[in-house]
Amino acid sequence: MTLKFINPATLGPPRGYSNGVLTEPGARLLFIAGQVGWNEQQKITSADFVEQFDRTLANVVAVVTEAGGRPEQIARLVIYVTDKNEYQLRTREVGERYRAHLGKHFPAMALVEVKSLLDDAAKVEIEGIAVLSS
Fold first, then answer.
1. At what angle do helices 91-102 and 49-66 cross, to 10 degrees?
2. Smallest Cα–Cα separation from 77: which of 16, 9, 7, 12?
3. Which of 12, 21, 60, 114 makes the best surface tag, with the fewest CB within 10 Å?
Protein backbone atom coordinates (compact mmCIF):
# COMPACT_ATOMS: atom_id res chain seq x y z
CA MET A 1 0.00 0.00 0.00
CA THR A 2 1.33 3.39 -0.93
CA LEU A 3 0.26 6.95 -0.44
CA LYS A 4 1.01 9.53 -3.12
CA PHE A 5 1.39 13.06 -1.80
CA ILE A 6 -0.14 15.76 -4.00
CA ASN A 7 1.40 19.21 -3.69
CA PRO A 8 0.71 21.44 -6.72
CA ALA A 9 3.46 23.98 -7.41
CA THR A 10 0.76 26.65 -7.76
CA LEU A 11 0.08 26.36 -4.01
CA GLY A 12 3.70 26.85 -2.98
CA PRO A 13 5.65 24.33 -0.91
CA PRO A 14 3.73 23.10 2.15
CA ARG A 15 5.50 23.15 5.51
CA GLY A 16 4.63 20.30 7.84
CA TYR A 17 1.67 18.92 5.86
CA SER A 18 0.65 17.78 2.38
CA ASN A 19 -2.11 19.41 0.32
CA GLY A 20 -3.54 16.07 -0.75
CA VAL A 21 -2.98 12.35 -0.34
CA LEU A 22 -3.96 9.84 -3.02
CA THR A 23 -4.47 6.17 -2.17
CA GLU A 24 -4.46 3.10 -4.37
CA PRO A 25 -7.63 1.08 -5.06
CA GLY A 26 -8.56 -1.62 -2.58
CA ALA A 27 -7.03 0.04 0.47
CA ARG A 28 -8.85 -0.13 3.80
CA LEU A 29 -9.73 3.15 5.50
CA LEU A 30 -9.46 3.59 9.26
CA PHE A 31 -11.43 6.56 10.61
CA ILE A 32 -9.81 7.72 13.85
CA ALA A 33 -12.17 9.38 16.31
CA GLY A 34 -11.11 12.61 17.97
CA GLN A 35 -8.49 11.82 20.59
CA VAL A 36 -7.46 14.03 23.51
CA GLY A 37 -4.58 13.81 25.98
CA TRP A 38 -6.26 11.11 28.07
CA ASN A 39 -4.59 8.22 29.84
CA GLU A 40 -6.09 4.76 30.39
CA GLN A 41 -8.42 6.18 33.08
CA GLN A 42 -9.66 8.82 30.61
CA LYS A 43 -8.04 11.60 32.60
CA ILE A 44 -6.12 14.46 30.97
CA THR A 45 -2.46 13.83 31.80
CA SER A 46 -1.22 17.44 31.91
CA ALA A 47 -2.44 21.02 31.75
CA ASP A 48 0.52 21.89 29.48
CA PHE A 49 -0.40 22.34 25.80
CA VAL A 50 2.67 20.56 24.38
CA GLU A 51 2.30 17.63 26.79
CA GLN A 52 -1.35 17.31 25.78
CA PHE A 53 -0.41 17.44 22.08
CA ASP A 54 2.16 14.70 22.63
CA ARG A 55 -0.26 12.41 24.47
CA THR A 56 -3.05 13.12 21.98
CA LEU A 57 -0.88 12.20 19.01
CA ALA A 58 0.33 9.09 20.85
CA ASN A 59 -3.32 8.11 21.29
CA VAL A 60 -3.97 8.57 17.55
CA VAL A 61 -0.97 6.36 16.75
CA ALA A 62 -2.23 3.77 19.28
CA VAL A 63 -5.52 3.49 17.37
CA VAL A 64 -3.67 3.02 14.07
CA THR A 65 -1.34 0.42 15.59
CA GLU A 66 -4.22 -1.47 17.19
CA ALA A 67 -5.83 -1.73 13.74
CA GLY A 68 -2.63 -3.28 12.36
CA GLY A 69 -1.32 -0.11 10.75
CA ARG A 70 1.76 2.07 11.02
CA PRO A 71 1.99 5.82 11.66
CA GLU A 72 3.15 6.49 8.09
CA GLN A 73 -0.22 5.17 6.87
CA ILE A 74 -2.03 8.16 8.34
CA ALA A 75 -3.41 10.11 5.37
CA ARG A 76 -5.24 12.95 7.11
CA LEU A 77 -5.25 14.69 10.48
CA VAL A 78 -7.52 17.42 11.79
CA ILE A 79 -6.08 19.18 14.83
CA TYR A 80 -8.51 21.12 17.01
CA VAL A 81 -7.02 23.58 19.50
CA THR A 82 -8.68 25.88 22.01
CA ASP A 83 -5.98 28.54 21.55
CA LYS A 84 -4.39 29.00 18.14
CA ASN A 85 -1.90 31.50 19.58
CA GLU A 86 -0.59 28.95 22.07
CA TYR A 87 -0.11 26.50 19.20
CA GLN A 88 1.77 29.11 17.16
CA LEU A 89 3.94 30.23 20.09
CA ARG A 90 5.00 26.63 20.77
CA THR A 91 5.32 25.40 17.19
CA ARG A 92 8.93 24.30 17.67
CA GLU A 93 8.06 22.09 20.65
CA VAL A 94 4.94 20.76 18.90
CA GLY A 95 7.10 19.91 15.86
CA GLU A 96 9.56 18.00 18.04
CA ARG A 97 6.75 15.94 19.55
CA TYR A 98 5.17 15.41 16.15
CA ARG A 99 8.42 14.07 14.68
CA ALA A 100 8.85 11.75 17.69
CA HIS A 101 5.61 10.00 16.66
CA LEU A 102 5.45 10.46 12.87
CA GLY A 103 8.99 11.33 11.80
CA LYS A 104 8.94 13.27 8.55
CA HIS A 105 5.58 11.85 7.47
CA PHE A 106 3.30 14.79 6.68
CA PRO A 107 -0.27 13.82 5.77
CA ALA A 108 -2.98 16.24 4.68
CA MET A 109 -3.73 18.33 7.77
CA ALA A 110 -5.95 21.11 9.03
CA LEU A 111 -5.71 23.17 12.21
CA VAL A 112 -8.99 24.47 13.63
CA GLU A 113 -9.43 26.75 16.63
CA VAL A 114 -12.51 25.91 18.67
CA LYS A 115 -14.18 27.43 21.72
CA SER A 116 -13.90 24.25 23.78
CA LEU A 117 -13.61 20.46 23.60
CA LEU A 118 -15.64 17.67 25.20
CA ASP A 119 -13.30 17.44 28.22
CA ASP A 120 -13.07 20.93 29.72
CA ALA A 121 -9.38 20.40 30.55
CA ALA A 122 -8.49 19.43 26.96
CA LYS A 123 -6.58 21.98 24.90
CA VAL A 124 -6.09 19.82 21.80
CA GLU A 125 -7.99 17.08 20.01
CA ILE A 126 -6.86 15.19 16.90
CA GLU A 127 -8.91 13.07 14.53
CA GLY A 128 -7.73 11.39 11.37
CA ILE A 129 -7.94 8.85 8.59
CA ALA A 130 -5.37 6.13 7.95
CA VAL A 131 -5.12 4.01 4.81
CA LEU A 132 -4.25 0.43 5.66
CA SER A 133 -3.20 -2.36 3.33
CA SER A 134 -6.06 -4.51 2.12
1. 20
2. 16
3. 12
Q: How many C-beta atoms lie closer than 10 Å to residue 18's C-beta?
A: 19
Q: For the segment 75-108, what is each residue's pLDDT rounded down to a tens digit?
A: 999 999 999 999 999 999 999 999 999 999 999 9
Q: What domains can you pick out in the chain, each with its CATH number?
A: 3-132 (3.30.1330.40)
Show the low-confidence residues of the chain (pLDDT under 50). Answer: none
Q: Which of 93, 33, 39, 86 is nearest to 64 (CA)?
A: 33
Q: What is the DSSP string of 36-55?
A: -SB-TTS-B--SSHHHHHHH
The predicted model scores a pTM of 0.89
Using the 8-state DSSP alphabet, how is residue 72 labeled? G
